[in-house]
Amino acid sequence: ASHLESRHVLEDARLLRLYGRLHHEATQIKAGEYQLSRGITPVALLDLLVAGKTISHSITLVEGWTFDQMMQAIDTHPELRHDLKGVSSGKIMESLGHAGENPEGRFFPDTYLFPWDFSDLQLLKRAYGRMEDTLKQAWAEREKDLPLKNPYEMLILASIVEKETGRAGERDRIAGVFVRRLKKGMKLQTDPTVIYGMGASYKGNIRRKDLRKPTPYNTYVIAGLPPTPICMPGSGSLFAVAHPADGKALYFVAKGDGSHQFSATLRQHNAAVRKYQLKK
Prior knowledge:
Blueprint lengths: L1 H5 L6 H10 L19 H10 L5 E4 L6 H9 L13 H7 L15 E4 L5 H21 L10 H14 L6 H14 L6 H8 L9 H5 L22 H8 L8 E4 L5 E4 L2 H11 L4
Helix pairs in contact: 2-3, 6-7, 6-11, 7-8, 7-11, 8-11
């Protein structure tokens, strides 16, 4: 009260103290960060503090971000309390109560609101729980003939769909292509997994030798899914994998405008590559 009086927010600190004690509200105020204006009355201020109407800060975890990208945003956010800065990913998962889990793809991308003195660990717990709940719902509602053994495989495939297209209307079609390829025993042959497996050596271009180099994430070489997700998928990608579009397409190629051309045969696909990629 004295501090607010010295900052000219309150005219008389004694009135706030007296009013709070008379109405037995002095011990009910909530700690936090508040937006106050000069000239506020003691009654209005006490109501605000008792109601706990604190300022909310926000952070956005973006769909398609990797765990490293997410942690960079968290580590540099000025309003979060940083208890995990410099801590290894393994220790972070241990702190969350999930020791031994790979952190990639485990956190739900969204905009999160939080109050003063909110920690990075609290934020990660919230994002982890959101992904668990969303994945559990998508798995429970899935089509029953999917070639996926468990929710984690759904998470992996959803992360690939997330990186393949930014168009919401295409996600189920992309998912349909991958599901059909898995059912037929065809390699997924998807560039985002190759890029993820290249790590820091990726400089913006995939060469032929990169497509031939064996890594756990090179789906031009390995059969089936990579061992972990490659990013944070959003709910749109998760539910696209749960309900892939019907059709015969086994291939797709980027058209250059953010959309894709889908093809049922390799011959059609090669023609689409010549048209949209090689401009012939």
